[in-house]
Amino acid sequence: MRTPVSTYRLQIRSSFTLFDAAEKVPYLKDLGVDWVYLSPILTAEKGSDHGYDVTDPSAVDPDRGGPEGLLALSSAAREHGMGVLVDIVPNHVGVATPVQNPWWWSLLKEGRESPYAEAFDVDWDLGGGKVRLPMLGSDADLDKLEVKDGELRYYDHRFPLAEGTYSEGDSPQDVHSRQHYQLMDWRRADAELNYRRFFAVTTLAGIRVEEPSVFEKAHAEVGRWFTEGLVDGLRVDHPDGLADPAGYLRWLKDLSGGAYVLVEKILEPGEVLPQDFACEGTTGYDALADVDRVFVDPAGQHALDALDASLRGTSGPADYAEMIRGTKRMIADGILRSEVLRLARLVPESHGITVDQAADAIAEIIASFPVYRSYLPVGADVLKEACESAAAHRPDLDVAVGTLLPLLLDPANPIAVRFQQTSGMVMAKGVEDTAFYRYTRLGTLTEVGAEPTEFAVAPEEFHQRMQRRQQELPLSMTTLSTHDTKRSEDARARISVIAELPQEWAETLEALRGLAPIPDGPYENLLWQAIVGAWPASRERLQGYAEKAAREAGNSTTWTDPNEDFEAAVKAAVDAVFDDAQVARVVGDFVARIEAFSAANSVSAKLVQLTMPGVPDVYQGSEFWERSLTDPDNRRPVDFAARQAELAKLDDGELPDAGTEASKLLVTSRALRLRRDRPELFQGYTPLAATGPAAGHLLAFSRGTSAASSGAVTLATRLPAGLEAAGGWRDTAVELSAAMRDELTGTSHGPGPVSVSEVLGTYPVALLVPVDGEKA
């Protein structure tokens, strides 16, 4: 199996095709990248910038370059000695425009007789033999249907007609009644939908890749990539939505000839990948959380908790456990009610509980679930604990929960299979897409894959986690930014400084609230942190984020029922950053105050992520500052020419100033090149301890197998504001076992104890390599 040393994620779309990606391969090679990592490239909904709405899995998307583009990219990668990793989407397909998806079009036209009927997860009985499509503005809009060119039309929406269901003179409503689908009010989807979807997205229909024939049809093109040697590895999107993730991964390994495979899996604290997963690891959210937290000051927690309490008008900060129980229950009773009801209908009548009682109990169990899903029989204990918690929280459901438990524990029972597919949906929507916008004491902590109640990680704990990673998941991906992160890496690096200066942040926030008030204190904290993290940013970007964050939180406004007065206040607050000199000054002054500290956090986190155990990924463009907010902000085009020009300057010997984005490019390129060109320097993981008054501000480790072995050494500054306040490094020292050279500056140090202030005299970080022939 060929494995990557590092990857670089590119977002492939019509405005940046596979041909464009092929042209960037020489730059990526110069940067030090080992494999090119592509977003989904199968044919997707027209105009889709992300590609997760695949409409035809049988071909590479012509709008993204088609098979010729993939060949060009693969050939360029091969020419430069690089591999190719591709993101695939096995859980669902895009159905927003039925005519674009031949599988879905066939299903709607032919119903259960469609050759693709088995591909879709439809509860035909609930729909009376029809697929329910929540497409209408209201049920009264059936009057707006028309038959045109052999199709049923609703405004611009097109639907097929089954053979023999239309004669000249028939009313569109009568024709509609004869079809294998039923158009209905979009609001009815929450409780009445009868096909499985991706989370609450009705335009993404789940498919049943657990069926061999469906797997074969959905992966024929993917198989070709390996047969023809075009691709070297796969990233699997949302495996938790599958009926049998472990079985799917085994099939995928067989299909790919044993290729390198990663899964997009959120691991909660203490959770590990199931041993029967045929993959090399995750896409790195777990690593992201560890790196973030080692750069957060634990001393700031008390003050930020107090600020949170004052913003909420409560005696203490938000109770996160209770919050997510509530948000998950809200999702289970709301936008995912149809999925819960489908589970409830699987409970045999002989068990003596009604559908409503079963639904109530199922929703409560899911709300109590501590992880995204179980993988029965693995996770049976987690399921039992969730049932105990649900019954304790709702004693009135004790009998119903007890009735359900044996059904949910049986891996062969359809309700158990579907429950495992559903719990992750509720977790994602209730936690990532709701609670993360409500739990606002420090934005760094509410990132995908993170546990927000873990405020900070001490260096000692960080080292232990890295040693486990080296032992257990050495080929798992590490990352700091993705297309899905709520805030990109350098926005979080800025926000993390707030934990070091909580009182100054409280004063800044108070000033902003006075100048541009929004009637929701916790949301104000979230928004102003995001603005500071992303600054400078355009009005359009910040307005887009502010609206999305407010509606996702769902406290003061929602997507389905926007509060116009509240949203007007939000819009005015964002406008004030650009139009009110006082507001602009408050934001600008705070950003300036923390700029050097945030830059130190950025390059420190980057160097740690690129040199720690695992396969480091660089998200497109993040070799410069990456201060994006949530999608679509983090999927903006990248100016590769600027990066390429700056890299050429560095390679000509021009050392950038500390605190500039060119310094981040220096760190990124030198770390990537070293990992690729000197893999023998990254074989283990050994913590290095500093001595002296500022020892706690240094995160240091060697990638040698022991303290005496020669490996690359990473030195990174943590808590830079506190370091400055304490008078700097002073006589803090670190022991080097060999004479070493800094890859960033070319300066040599050691062997023996060396002054940290000397080694970190130019940048907040150093990447040291043994000097040949000068062993200690």
From TrEMBL:
Its EC number is 5.4.99.15. SMART domains: Aamy. GO terms for biological process: alpha-glucan catabolic process; trehalose biosynthetic process. Residues 4-651 form the Glycosyl hydrolase family 13 catalytic domain. CDD domains: AmyAc_MTSase. Keywords: Isomerase. InterPro entries: GH, GH13_cat_dom, Maltooligo_trehalose_synth_4, Trehalose_TreY. It is an enzyme of class 5 (isomerase). GO terms for molecular function: (1,4)-alpha-D-glucan 1-alpha-D-glucosylmutase activity. This is (1->4)-alpha-D-glucan 1-alpha-D-glucosylmutase.
